[in-house]
């Protein structure tokens, strides 16, 4: 068998693209259809879900260690940027946003969070916009929380503070009607 490119230890936080931050709780060996498999057993507390990933498939499914400090800083800088709103149909934008969230790429998730954020003085969001915003913000907050060893609500508040400060800057640019 080839050497494993990725190796995670029990207790490590990992990012699984479709589910966000989980923790390796066990390494298991199972025999499935006569083949012996080594599995990472991941626990996602927020979803109350356990996932088993074959160790030799971890890389191909996009499982990775938590982002580097540099990537997290880049994501936080992205939140401070000016929101980009495309004028395409919502269904197409929603698909693009979902794809970015499920990519597991922290900077892409930060872009979705920034673009869908609404300050208190801005128009109300649709239900589906709010759902996608919350999914992206939560995914970002969980990784930030794991990296900074704080709880998710504190991480989420930190993200919202950055977004509110950026919104205050960019909303002043618009001329009063």
TrEMBL record:
Signal peptide: none annotated. It comes from the Bacteria. Residues 7-117 form the CarD-like/TRCF RNAP-interacting domain. One of its GO terms (biological process) is rRNA transcription. SMART domains: CarD_TRCF. InterPro entries: CarD-like/TRCF_RID, CarD-like/TRCF_RID_sf, CarD-like_C, CarD-like_regulator, CarD_C. This is Transcriptional regulator, CarD family. It comes from Sphingomonas gellani.
């Amino acid at each position: 068998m080839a050497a494993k490119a990725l190796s995670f230890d029990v207790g490590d936080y990992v990012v699984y693209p479709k589910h966000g931050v989980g923790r390796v709780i066990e390494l298991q060996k199972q025999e499935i259809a006569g083949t012996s498999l080594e599995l990472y057993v991941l626990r996602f507390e927020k979803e109350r879900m356990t996932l088993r990933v074959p160790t030799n498939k971890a890389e191909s499914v996009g499982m990775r260690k938590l982002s580097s400090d540099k990537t997290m800083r880049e994501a936080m800088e992205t939140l401070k940027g000016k929101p980009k709103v495309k004028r395409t149909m919502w269904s197409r934008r929603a698909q693009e946003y979902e794809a970015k969230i499920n990519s597991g790429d922290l900077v892409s998730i930060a872009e979705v969070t920034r673009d869908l954020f609404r300050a208190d003085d801005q128009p109300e969001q649709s239900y589906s916009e709010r759902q996608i915003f919350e999914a992206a913000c939560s995914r970002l907050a969980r990784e930030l929380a794991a990296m900074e060893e704080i709880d998710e609500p504190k991480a989420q508040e930190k993200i919202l503070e950055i977004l509110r400060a950026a919104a205050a800057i960019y909303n002043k640019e618009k001329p009063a009607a």
